Amino acid sequence: MARNRFLVGLIFLVFFVISLLSNILGPIVPDIIGTFSVGLGSAGFLVFAFFIAYGVMSIPAGFLVERYSEKPVMICAFLGAALGSVVFALHPTYKIAFVSLFVIGIGMAMLQVAINPLLRVAGGEENFALNETIAQLLFGSASFLSPWIYSYLVLNLPVGAERANPLLRVLRQITPAHLPWVSLYWIFAAVAVAMVIVLSLSRFPAVQHTAEERPGTLAMYKSLIRRRLVWLYFLAIFAYVGCEQGTANWISQFLSHYHGYDPHTTGARAVSWFWGLMTSGCFAGAFLLRLFDSRRVLIGAASGALLLLSLGLFGSASIAVIALPLVGLFASVMWPILISLALNSVAEYHGAFTGILTTGIMGGAIVTLVIGDIGDHVGLRTGMALLYLTFGYVWSVGFWAKPLINNATIGSKDKGVAAM
Predict the structure, then answer these.
(1) Contacts from 122-126 at CB under 8 Å and sequence distance 24+?
(2) Domain ranges of the chain
(3) Looking at the domain 1-206, which fold is it?
């Protein structure tokens, strides 16, 4: 089958846009608290609205893709994201924010389910691992970029019109003067609409799913959820995404509250570097996984993350502003290792198992919410201490995991599927 380079590039763009829309929540948490006069728990509840959508929609999205194909599902996902963004930009209230973020989250979950099998067909099965790596690098790059866009808008929108470029002049006309951060959602809406147009004009190949890639039948899901191992790995994904989002979403507020750093500048940059280091950590992780068993790499990464978390939570201001973003460097290898260990630990129903694992992304919703709720009662530092439990569970996987296939390392006799 001829490879479609244009479609591969389009899928890479979709990965970039998903990240751009998804990982802006961390920098804007202080603005949410200040604008809506809410506590940490209520701010966490908005993050909950976004990530719980993954738990709600991941498995149904697989069935939608199976029935209608990728292109209509992706177009509907971006239409939903555009609608959610516009509604909040027009009516920036707390209640509307909750509904808006849930709708945007639904769209992002649908996209995540649709694009991976499409990338396999468009780029070729033999290039799938390489293309997935490139896609994750673009995903991380967008996460690094979005906080800088946020800083630019909130710092420059309030400036006089004579110093504004055309984009700022337009945004100033449609954004409340006292809520410059809301302008982000006009940007998101415009990007989502642009993606709808591009997708509508693009030709998609027919995707032939293998038996293992299909979303699965109810009988498959029933078989899987009876297995203790499936639940253990579901909890591992739940814990990991809780680690990732529980750190990223509270860095800016923590640095502002305990150390007085400006969330519009230093706080936003700290979040940006968290995601940037997660991206660069993929290279180091790929190298380490060629040398060591993935379980050992996971234990080392979780240990490093726990050490840096401790320095960030209990160190001085100058230490915290460096240590907390560095957690992202050690977290970077956790997702691919956990996914590979999980899938390499069962002999069948990988498509259905992937759907179950993907619902674990809701951990980002629940852990962030619980941290905020604890923070309201006994302080954000104590709330973020919950991350010791989630990182600790990820650390434990390295000891109890017993995959059927180990990752191939240099000099190993095992030629099985690599862990990355």
Answers:
(1) 122/3, 122/4, 122/7, 122/8, 122/11, 122/205, 123/3, 123/4, 123/8, 123/11, 124/1, 124/3
(2) 1-206, 213-420
(3) Growth Hormone; Chain: A; (1.20.1250)
| E strands, 126-183, in order | none
Output the six-digit token pair for 153: 């808008």
One-letter amino acid for residue 254 of the chain: F
Q: Could you tell me the CATH superfamily of domain 213-420? A: MFS general substrate transporter like domains (1.20.1250.20)
- What's the Cα-to-Cα distance from 89 to each of 108, 119, 190, 414, 415, rounded to whole Å? 19, 33, 12, 54, 53
The HSE-up count of residue 306 (CA atoms within 13 Å, CB side) is 16
Burial class of residue 278 (count of CB atoms within 10 Å of its CB; 0-12, 13-18, 19+):
buried
Give the confidence band of 419 by pLDDT, cuts at 50, 70, 90: very low
Q: Is 50 exposed, middle or buried (0-12, 13-18, 19+ CB in 10 A)?
A: buried
pLDDT level of residue 388 (50, 70, 90 thresholds): very high
How many C-beta atoms surround the C-beta of residue 408 within 10 A? Answer: 17
Please write the tens of the pLDDT for every residue from 273-301: 998 898 888 778 778 877 888 899 899 99
Contact 88, 182 (CB under 8 A): yes
pLDDT in tens, 55-113: 888 888 878 887 888 899 999 999 999 999 999 999 999 999 999 999 999 999 888 88
- 242-267 burial: b if 16+ Cβ within 10 Å, else e: bbbbbbbbbbbbbbbbebebebbebb
For the entire predicted model, the pTM comes to 0.80
**Structure confidence at residue 374 (pLDDT):** 95
CB half-sphere exposure, 345, CA atoms < 13 A: 24
Tokens coding 361: 């992304």
Domains 1-206 and 213-420 share a fold: yes
